[in-house]
Amino acid sequence: MSMMMKAEYVNPFLESASLVFRDMLGTELLRGKTSIKNDGTPTHEIAMILGITGNVTGQIIYSMNKETAFKLVRKLMPGVDDGTVESEYKDVLGEIANMITGNAINIFLTNDKDLDVTVPQVVDTRIQTIRVSKNPTLGLNLYSRFGMLEVNIMMG
Known about the structure:
Blueprint: H1 3-25, E1 30-37, E2 46-54, E3 58-64, H2 66-76, H3 82-110, E4 115-117, E5 121-124, E6 137-144, E7 147-155
Antiparallel strand pairs: 1-6, 2-3, 2-4, 2-5, 3-7, 6-7
Helix pairs in contact: 1-3, 2-3
C-alpha cells in the first residue's frame, strides 16, 4: 500500500471524525499512530461496522471500549439513567459512525470518487462475532477526552 494511497483514504476520515467530535461532542480529537495491519479486526469491545460501495469498495470499522461509548452517550443525552444508556448506546454510536463516514464520503465525492455507505452495524464483540474481511487495513488511533476511537479502514 503506497503512502499516497494511505493519505488519500485516511485524511477524509481524520477530517470528518475531528469535525463530528468537535461539533457534536464539543471535544478535539488528537491523532495517535497510524499502522498497517493484516485485517480490520477491532481492538475494542464496541465496534461500528460500515460497508463502502461504489468505485472503491471496502469496510470501515470504528471501535472503542464500553466506558468511552457510555461517556459519549451521556454527553449527547445528559441526565439519562444507566438503563437508558445501556439501551440507547448502539443507536447513538451508529449515528456518530454514520456522520463520520457520510462526511468522509462527501470529501471523496469532491475528489471524484463515487462512493456509498451501508447502514452501520453496532456490535459488542464480546457477545457477538463479526466477520471482517482479511484485507490490508489502515488503523488510526484517535484520542479525545472521552477515550480512544480506533478507525480501521479497508478500501481498495
